[in-house]
Write a structure and sequence with these properties.
The structure is a homotetramer. In chain A, helix 4 packs antiparallel against helix 5 and helix 5 packs across helix 8. Chain A has eight helices and no strands. Chain A has two domains: about 40 residues, Orthogonal Bundle (Arc Repressor Mutant, subunit A); about 140 residues, Orthogonal Bundle (Tetracycline Repressor, domain 2), CATH 1.10.357. Chain A has about 190 residues and is mostly helical. Chains in contact: A-B, C-D. At the A-B interface, helix 7 and helix 8 of A face helix 7 and helix 8 of B. Chain A binds a DNA duplex (21 and 21 nucleotides) through helix 3.
Chain lengths: ~190, ~190, ~190, ~190
DNA sequence: CATGAATGAGTGTTCATTCAT
DNA sequence: AATGAATGAACACTCATTCAT
């Protein structure tokens, strides 16, 4: 039930997965404990469901990345980043929960890693095609890229800096392009 | 008491702060519940104590950064990174706990941010002096740098990749130097 | 919930407030720990609730005292005493707990004192109206009266002397009438 | 050790027997936990020791009551009351602890009751000798007398009314004399 | 004699989960 | 389908008591 998933996302984001009480979620969704357990086996199951939702979004993003025709330059990179950061904005808690060992469920972690890998691969392909990539080491640098995006995005959103405005997006895009892939991007005037 | 702090670090790292049971910590320290509460007011107090320890290490690192004479090039950057990643290796959980909203104590969070800021400032100064810096935007890029180091380091250590060997250190150093500060570093032969 | 209040009264009476275990209360009420904390914030809150119940009974008694028409002689005094001792029989522990400094909650103590004062005032009025009162000192003697009733009643009930039979009631009534208020009461033949 | 007994009396009086912590007593006596258990088997043993002290004082009072030559009138009653209330001031907690079922030790309770009975007997004898006694019922009224003194004294001391001044003593003396024993005492001018 | 760090059984409290309605 | 009162296992924390120094 959407009401509950949304409430879960809200409460997890506010308090963190472990500190979140089923009671908080249920109250936030204006429903009852009974209903919660009608749709989810338990609290962890809600996290799993949210993780799947998140993974789906990431897979979609990966597909979109593969379907772009023509050159993959600064604008495209920037558009991708905006997309990715948006997903992170919604599912940050879930991503962090599965990345860290807060949840014992191995399947959730695996799904997450798979989604991440899908994106990483597509991105690597795209950038290589564009001919401007000179990654220090593919695996390491893509990992570092994702890491930075995740953590940076968290910092930005938690500092209450609000939406990712153009300035921020540009900075990140240039950092990623120049630093990780050697795209000497000066923002097109 | 050292035994307990160490055990806390171990257990927090294994299970995460919230999932960690006082009983686990006590058992890991081969001591009793009573002893735990002799030295710490409660579980959160242990986190606070560890956070202070961590912050001290970071402040020391900041000072060391300020006292380096002469040029601040690749080797110095690499040494700094090794140092920083080492601290993160020990205090990762604590850093993440205070960075995320897992702990209600505002003082802990403030101390952590202060320590981070101290490092960030010194680093910015050092790199500017070295003349090779062309940061996209100082505040943003240093923030991103710290973010990346944190998250990347976490990824590396949690994947069980073990110690930070030379290869990894070099990759990171080059990424940081080239990407964030425009230092065109090719590893000195 | 009545089951829990009653069980609380029972267990507090048996073991005293401090020695009483929530587990005892819960078992005596044939319910669970969870249910206890569903209705009461904590052990002290149960005492508070019982104190309010007790205070209500005392206020009712005070009102009844004010509504008696006609003379207030031996029979009326005796009836009042029977009523008061009955309340004490049920809520003895609570009264003692709030009279002594066993409970940190100042509000509970204040409510109790207020209820006592209400009774004392009405009683003083009634007896003065009856014209036979020559109290040594109003404040002191009413205080002493209540004190005696409380403590005496406790002694009687804890010695297992069972219900307050006619003999006991008569003795107390005569003591109070003669000693405190100078009513030369010879038991009506 | 006197230091510890005194500290025990202080702390028991402040917090009540159950709420009193051995740590409080030890700190109040400026000594250590080890020393406490050198002189007392456990917390209850300290209460026992204090109860014996208290009983001794009461037995002494009983003896003094028996050794008074000549008449036992208002002044003698008043002197006795002052003595009794003084003992209660010091040992109130202990008396209450043994009177109520707060302590499982049956011996303590028995000693206390014995001491009380000793006083009650002597007092009854003295008053009967004085020829002015017409107790309603010996057993009941003496019990009520002790009860009242105890409880009243508590009320007086806990209300912060300070020492038992002449006024209070006179009021109590007249109440007891007139009410319990029919001594028509008007304070000697 | 004196100490106080260490102990662990015991207690209050929480919260995910169930089930009769 | 929906409810929410009831449950009890699990956890944080306390404090009387011990014992090596």
């Amino acid at each position: 039930m959407r009401k509950l998933s949304d409430a879960g996302l809200r409460v997890f984001a506010e308090r963190g997965y472990h500190a979140a009480r089923v009671d908080d979620i249920v109250r936030s969704a204006r429903t009852s404990h009974g209903t919660f357990y009608l749709y989810f086996a338990n609290k962890e199951d809600l996290l799993r469901a949210l993780a799947v939702e998140c993974a789906d979004s990431l897979f979609e993003l990966a597909d979109a990345l593969g379907e772009i025709e023509g050159e993959f330059g600064y604008e495209e990179l920037r558009a991708f980043l905006a997309e990715f950061l948006g997903i992170y904005r919604s599912y940050g808690v879930v991503i962090r929960a599965w990345m860290e060992d807060q949840v014992p469920d191995r399947d959730v972690a695996r799904t997450g890693v798979k989604a991440y890998t899908a994106i990483a691969k597509r991105l690597a392909v795209r950038l290589e095609e564009s001919g401007s990539v000179q990654p220090v080491d593919a695996a390491t640098s893509v990992s570092a890229l994702m890491a930075m995006l995740e953590r940076f995005n968290y910092a930005v959103s938690s500092r209450g800096l609000g939406a990712h405005d153009d300035e921020t997006l540009d900075t990140v895009a240039r950092l990623v392009g120049q630093g990780f892939f050697g795209i000497g991007v000066s923002r097109p005037a």
